[in-house]
Structure formats: structure tokens, C-alpha cells
Write a structure and sequence with these properties.
- It is a single chain.
- This protein is α+β, with helices and mostly antiparallel strands and 728 residues long.
- It has 20 helices and 14 strands.
- The chain has two domains: 24-262 and 549-715, no CATH class; 296-512, Trefoil (Trefoil (Acidic Fibroblast Growth Factor, subunit A)).
- The protein has helices at 17-31, 44-55, 68-79, 101-125, 130-141, 144-150, 156-176, 184-203, 207-226, 233-265, 278-282, 288-292, 502-510, 523-536, 550-554, 578-603, 611-632, 648-668, 673-702, 709-714, and strands at 303-309, 318-325, 340-345, 353-357, 378-383, 390-396, 404-408, 422-426, 443-447, 453-456, 472-477, 489-496, 560-564, 571-574.
- The strands form three sheets. A six-stranded antiparallel sheet has the order 9-8-5-4-1-12, with no helix packed on it. Strands 2, 3, 6, 7, 10 and 11 form a six-stranded antiparallel sheet that branches.
- The longest helix is centred in the middle third of the chain and has 33 residues, at 233-265.
- Pfam families: MIR (PF02815), PMT (PF02366), PMT_4TMC (PF16192).
- This is Protein O-mannosyl-transferase 1.
């Protein structure tokens, strides 16, 4: 029974020494001297702020993309014991001792190092030789720009890692499709494809390009399966559902999970939450939540409220009035009503309070029980401090002459009667009987007499002159098509008024609320709002010293100075390996020309290469040329500030194409042994030049050793490169 113990338990394993060696070299090239320089390097000043906010659990909005990449950087800080206390305000600032520099830079460096063996495996899965795969890995290993970008607290190396992982996983899955469908390894690589795609998109939206490419390739492969009579209908349905689960459902679920973790971690109020809606702000600990805690939920006749404009541009502001009146005549000679000014004020103030009044009653207090205001009800809005009624009439607004002036009515005993009735329209209502709710309801106020809609002026950045204290204009918009956010308001602060006398009411307006109502948003509501902000809240495109156009990238006519030592000539630049970049461009051109030649010849029934070699050539091009195209061409359509590092994902695919083209030329164009030998010698010489250029530029890749002025000038191979040289 125990006979099996008579023989030793033996475990055998195949170890690819090429992979091991490449991984070790990748780790050495990316991790060596990782803490140097111990200073803020280029965009570390940007991502470091987010890491600090994660450490302090303070909410922020990064309008450049989803949160997964920032969370990975924050994970490095967490593992290093970072407390978040560092002022990220200047490139080149020395890190204090509490900043774990090595830990913060570790994950990007590991991702960059692992791209080397991934490149090797991708070419093996594309059915190319181990020699070609080794060449691709060496090109990635010796690419100066990829080394520089992976050695700092930046996201491109992480993005490229997940992109390559997704490509490798799909290729492994596709190769298993032929003989091991629905096996454990088949499921593993299919699911890993979806996971890697979602991680790539979660790091930066640029990952969406490769995700779309793999979806298209998967769709094409499935289309061919449909035409294969060896697959039954049931089998095809199962294959389709498996791909839908792994490549669509799981990535979407993971994308939502990234935001769920992000919002769970960042539960405290901070400076960024002011661009969010009142409901979102109230869900955060501190800030608005401290003010709104204990407010009544339902707005009733007699309620005292502040009204925040939902648009929040050019800045958040609240409906406001004060004792001052519009000037009798404006600077351009137009006349006004000389009524009390109504503005949108970007600060909290007692003059932001309004009282919701029933037009049929005189009282300004909430009855017992309260009578809630519903969608479609007619109300008057009484300014809390001055007790004048919100009014609009057929008088041109001060800055927007095509819109109506909005004022608080003063009776001058002239032929201008009060027009102060407003219909409440709840924009986000579920039914026509919905109750107007604090924070949650988004409402429009439609003027009963003129049908004008109360609106924060659409003149972005314009403010009233000195007589209006530079506050923002509020108008009655006559042509109110749609529900533009500038026409939508929500109640932010709210209390039930109890004092009928004006003096007592003024005291009441300054006092805190008493009741306790919770207004926590659901995750999907918070996700939808945050996602919309990320997609729409873009900084104005500004020129940067090192910004560039997409055309500059192909020939590397630009560079970026990442860091300069304060005293010596040591510096770090984002510069690529010139030989590799030029070779990648030539390889892409050769691939396109050869493909066109083959296509024309095949159209004439002339087959220059075997069918298997043609299929291999096409599939490799679909991945490499397709990956380059989808990661590069979209930048010509983008209206944003562009930098050289945006090209690195596309460059990575282009580099993979170089050994593919070289092997194809060797296998199919070098017919004789002499030609093959000469071609191999040229390839060795070319690889030597790649290493020579890598070694030449390594001082500005790693930042050491410091170079003299003469040595720095010698590195300026192009006049367009900005190599920093100190004045003597």
C-alpha cells in the first residue's frame, strides 16, 4: 500500500534560460540606482500629489484618466510607509527623508523590466524564431526612452506592461484554440486577456486603443470560426459567450471596481470636491457634509435655502442678492430697471439665502405639518436679508442684452409691476408629482409671465463691473431649449424657517440647522458623476516648453529634459535610441511596401512565399503595425498638450516589428548561403550599433555620471534637441 514511498518524488520543470537571462537584465537596467536622483523628476510633481492625497484619504479628480494607475503608485507609497507629507510644488525639489523614493518608483520600474521578457514571448507566440524573439527583447532592453520612463513615478511603463500582457495572453489563447478549446489553460489566457485590457484602460485611456484592436482581432477570428463547418451551432454560441464574458463583461466589471476602490479610499473632503455636485460633496467626510448634516430633505413653503448652480463653470456659485441696485445707465448707454442686483456669487455668504414662499399666503415660515413643494408648483423666492422678491421682466441684462435682467423687485411707483412668480421644474424627476428635495433635486425656475428660465450667464469668465462687485451675471434666458446645466440649480443648504419677524429671521439665517437627514449617494451615482467629470473637465490646452506634435515623434525631433542637477552637469532626458527609432521606421516602411507587393502579386495568382508564411506575415502585421497605428494616429485628432512619452506605446509595437521583418528578409529574400551569412553579419553589426548608442546616451538616461560641457554638446545630435548646458 505504501509502495509509492520506495521511489523518490521527482518534479521536472522546463526553464527557458533566455527568458531568465532577459528578465534579470531587464531588472538590472530598470532597478539599478533607482533612488537616484533623490529629487522630483518631471511629472512626479503631478502624480506625487495624488499619492499624497491617497495616503491622507482626501478626494481628488485626475482629469487625465481613470484611477487605477494612480492607485498602483499609491500602493508603492503605502508599502514604503509614506505618510503623504511632502509638498509637490517644484520639479527638482529634494525629497525629504519621509518620502520612500525607491518604493514609489518600484512598480513602474518592475513593469518596465517585465516588458523585456514579454516582448520575447510575444514573438515566440507569433511563431517566429527564438533568435528573432531575442532580438525584440534586446531592442526593448536597450531602448533609452523606455528605460528613462520606467525609472520614475510615471505611468507609461505600467501602461505598456499591461498592453503587452494583453497581447501575449490573447496570442497564447488563440494558439490554444486550435487543439485545447475550453481547457484550463485556454480559460486562463482568455480571462487574463480581459483582465490585462481592463488594467491597461484603468491606467490610462490610451490603453483603450489596444483593447479595441484586440476586440477587432477577436471578432475577426470568430468570424472565421463561423465559416468553419467543424464547429456546431452550440459550440459557436459557447465560444461567443466565453469571449463576451472575458473580453467585455469582466473588463467592464473591473473598470467599475477600480472606481469603487478609489471612492472607498478617498472618503474625505478636499480641494477638488468643489467641482462636484452638492450631493457628491455631501457624501464626503468633512467640508460640505459638516454644513449639510442635519438638513431637512423636502423643500417646503417657508423653507430657507441656498441655490447652487449645477454647471460650476467658470467657478461654483450661488444665487445671491444685496442692497445695491443696477446703475440707471450702463457704460454703453443702455438703461436698466434700477432694481436690486441679483448675481451668482462664488463664496458662501448670508446674502445667498432665499425663502420659498407660497404666492397665495403671506407667511414666511414652514407650517406644521410642512407643505412640500412639488414639480410644477408656483413659488415666489424672497431674498432672506432684504425680503425683496426674485423678479425678471423685459429689460436687457447688463452683459447679455439678448437675455432678460434678473433682479429683486423694488416698487418705484412707476409702470413696472412686479413679475415674481416662478414655476419649479425638477429636471431629474421620476414622476410629475416628485417633491423638491435638498441637494438631490436638480431644478429649473421658469418665469410664469415671460417663460424665461433663471440662468447663470453663459459668458464664461465674464463678471459684472465694479458696480456689481465683479460677481457673475444671472439672466432670464428666453430661448430655453434643453436643460443646459447653467439653467439648473440645486438646494445646497436648507432649514425650515420658524421666524416671521425680520430681525428674528436674520438671526435664524445665521444659525445652524437641527434636523438629521442622511443623503449618501449610491456608488453608481458617484461613479457616473466622477466619470463625466473626468471626460469633460479638461484643462485648457497650453503650450509647454517640451510639448511637441505627433509628427515630431517619428523622427524624434524633440526631447524632454526631466531633471537637472542643481550644481553639476548631471541631467536626465527622455531621449530614444536613435538607431532603434530609425530601424523601426524603416521596418514599418518595408513591411507596408512588401505587403502591397505581395497583395498585388497574389491578385495575379503569383505566390512569392508559402501560404503559411503569408498568414504569419499578416497576423504579425495585424498585431505590430495595427498596434502602432491605433496607438499613434489618434493623437492627430486630439486637442491636448502632447509630449514625446505619448508615443512610447506605439513605439513598442513598432520595435517588435523590426526582428519580424529581419527574419522574413532572411528566410525569403536571402536565397543563398552567402547572402544569409552576409545578412547575419549586417544584423550583428546593426545590433552592436544599437548597444553603442544606448551606452553613449546612458549618462542622460540614468543621470550619471555628470558630463562636461563638451560631452553634453557632443550628445546634441539634432539641433532640435534641448540639451541643458550651464553658462560658465
Amino acid at each position: 500500500m505504501l509502495g509509492f514511498l520506495k521511489k523518490p518524488v521527482v518534479v521536472t520543470a522546463e526553464i527557458n534560460l533566455n527568458l531568465v537571462a532577459l528578465t534579470v537584465m531587464g531588472l538590472i537596467s530598470r532597478l539599478w540606482g533607482l533612488s537616484y536622483p533623490r529629487a522630483v523628476v518631471f511629472d512626479e510633481v503631478y502624480y506625487g500629489q495624488f499619492v499624497s492625497l491617497y495616503m491622507k484619504r482626501i478626494f481628488f479628480v485626475d482629469d487625465s484618466g481613470p484611477p487605477f494607475g494612480n492607485m498602483l503608485l499609491a500602493l508603492g507609497g503605502y508599502l514604503g510607509g509614506f505618510d503623504g507629507n511632502f509638498l509637490w510644488n517644484r520639479i527638482g525639489a529634494e525629497y525629504s527623508m519621509n518620502v520612500p523614493v525607491w518604493s514609489l518608483r518600484l512598480l513602474p520600474a518592475l513593469a518596465g523590466a517585465l516588458c523585456v521578457p514579454l516582448a520575447y514571448q510575444i514573438l515566440v507566440e507569433l511563431q517566429f524564431s527564438h533568435c528573432a524573439a531575442l532580438g525584440a527583447a534586446l531592442l526593448i532592453l536597450l531602448e533609452n526612452s523606455l528605460i528613462t520612463q520606467s525609472r520614475f513615478m510615471l505611468l507609461e511603463s505600467i501602461l505598456i506592461f499591461f498592453i503587452l500582457l494583453a497581447v501575449l495572453s490573447y496570442l497564447k489563447f488563440s494558439n490554444l484554440q486550435r487543439h485545447s478549446s475550453f481547457s484550463g489553460s485556454w480559460w486562463f489566457w482568455l480571462l487574463l486577456t480581459g483582465v490585462a485590457c481592463s488594467c491597461a484602460v484603468g491606467v490610462k485611456y490610451m490603453g483603450l486603443f489596444t483593447y479595441m484592436l484586440l476586440l477587432a482581432i477577436s471578432g475577426l477570428h470568430f468570424w472565421h470560426m463561423i465559416g468553419d463547418q467543424n464547429f456546431s451551432n452550440v459550440s459557436l454560441v459557447c465560444h461567443f459567450l466565453a469571449r463576451a464574458l472575458a473580453l467585455i463583461i469582466i473588463p467592464v466589471a473591473m473598470y467599475l471596481a477600480f472606481f469603487y476602490v478609489h471612492l472607498t479610499l478617498l472618503y474625505r473632503s478636499g480641494p477638488h470636491d468643489q467641482i462636484m455636485t452638492s450631493a457628491f460633496q455631501a457624501s464626503l467626510e468633512g467640508g460640505l457634509a459638516r454644513i449639510t448634516q442635519g438638513q431637512p430633505l423636502e423643500v417646503a413653503y417657508g423653507s430657507q435655502i441656498t441655490l447652487r448652480n449645477v454647471l460650476g463653470k467658470p467657478m461654483q456659485c450661488w444665487l445671491h442678492s444685496h442692497m445695491n441696485t443696477y446703475p440707471i445707465r450702463y457704460e454703453n448707454g443702455r438703461g436698466s430697471s434700477h432694481q436690486q442686483q441679483v448675481t451668482c456669487y462664488p463664496f458662501k455668504d448670508v446674502n445667498n439665502w432665499w425663502i420659498v414662499k407660497d404666492p397665495g399666503m403671506q407667511q414666511l415660515v414652514v407650517s406644521n405639518p410642512p407643505r412640500p413643494v412639488r414639480h410644477g408648483h408656483i413659488v415666489q423666492l424672497v431674498h432672506g436679508i432684504t425680503t425683496r422678491y426674485l423678479n425678471t421682466h423685459d429689460v436687457a441684462a447688463p452683459l447679455s442684452p439678448h437675455s432678460q435682467e434678473v433682479s429683486c423687485y423694488i416698487d418705484y411707483n412707476i409702470s413696472m409691476p412686479a413679475q415674481n412668480l416662478w414655476r419649479v421644474e425638477i429636471v431629474n424627476r421620476e414622476s410629475d408629482t416628485d417633491v423638491w428635495k435638498t441637494i438631490l433635486s436638480e431644478v429649473r425656475f421658469v418665469h410664469v409671465n415671460t417663460s424665461a428660465v433663471l440662468k447663470a450667464s453663459g459668458i464664461i469668465g465674464a463678471s459684472l463691473p465694479e458696480w456689481g462687485y465683479r460677481q457673475l451675471e444671472v439672466v432670464g434666458e428666453k430661448l430655453s431649449k434643453g436643460n443646459h446645466q447653467s439653467m439648473v440649480w440645486n438646494v445646497e443648504e436648507h432649514r425650515y424657517g420658524k421666524s416671521q419677524e425680520q430681525k428674528e429671521r436674520e438671526v435664524e439665517l445665521h444659525s445652524p440647522t437641527q434636523m438629521d437627514i442622511s443623503k449618501n449617494l449610491s456608488f453608481m451615482a458617484k461613479f457616473s458623476e466622477l466619470q463625466w467629470k473626468i471626460l469633460t473637465l479638461k484643462n485648457e490646452g497650453t503650450e509647454h516648453k517640451y510639448s511637441s506634435s505627433a509628427l515630431d515623434w517619428i523622427t524624434m525631433d524633440t526631447n524632454i529634459a526631466y531633471w537637472l542637477h542643481p550644481t553639476s552637469g548631471a541631467q536626465i532626458h527622455l531621449l530614444g535610441n536613435v538607431v532603434t527609432w530609425a530601424s523601426a521606421n524603416v521596418a514599418a516602411l518595408v513591411y507596408v511596401c512588401l505587403s502591397l507587393w505581395y497583395l498585388i502579386r497574389r491578385r495575379r495568382k503569383i505566390y512569392d512565399i508559402p501560404e503559411g508564411a503569408w498568414q504569419l506575415w499578416v497576423s504579425a502585421g495585424g498585431i505590430c503595425v495595427g498596434g502602432w497605428a491605433v496607438n499613434y494616429l489618434p493623437f492627430f485628432l486630439m486637442e491636448k498638450t502632447l509630449f514625446l512619452y505619448h508615443y512610447l506605446p506605439a513605439l513598442t509595437f513598432q520595435i517588435l516589428l523590426v526582428p519580424i521583418v529581419l527574419q522574413h528578409l532572411s528566410d525569403h529574400l536571402c536565397r543563398s548561403l552567402l547572402l544569409k551569412s552576409m545578412f547575419s553579419a549586417l544584423v550583428v553589426a546593426w545590433l552592436s550599433s544599437v548597444y553603442l548608442v544606448y551606452n553613449t546616451f546612458s549618462p542622460v538616461t540614468y543621470g550619471e555620471p555628470a558630463l562636461s560641457v563638451t560631452e553634453l554638446k557632443d550628445l546634441r545630435w539634432k539641433d532640435s534637441w534641448n540639451i541643458l548646458i550651464r553658462k560658465q
